[in-house]
């Protein structure tokens, strides 16, 4: 498997994880004020997932340009 193909496969997994984190945050917001103590933790997970996804997308752009 080439580096580009490996990055695409990883991006697919990261994208699914980021979308799940987004939905978890959305679901939490609909339940408020129940579980309000989970807001920061859940938001941080969503943020981290999207930061990692964007970083991998950047790596893919560099790999495809090479």
UniProtKB/TrEMBL annotation:
Residues 4-31 form a coiled coil. It holds the Pfam family Rop-like. InterPro entries: Helix_hairpin_bin_sf, Put_N_fixation. The keyword Coiled coil applies. Keywords: Coiled coil, Nitrogen fixation. Belongs to the UPF0437 family. This is Rop-like protein.
């Amino acid at each position: 498997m080439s580096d580009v193909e490996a990055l695409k496969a990883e991006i697919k997994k990261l994208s699914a994880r980021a979308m799940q984190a987004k939905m978890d945050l959305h679901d939490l917001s609909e339940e408020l004020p129940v579980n309000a103590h989970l807001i920061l933790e859940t938001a941080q997970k969503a943020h981290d997932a999207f930061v990692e996804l964007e970083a991998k997308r950047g790596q893919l752009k560099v790999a495809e340009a090479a």
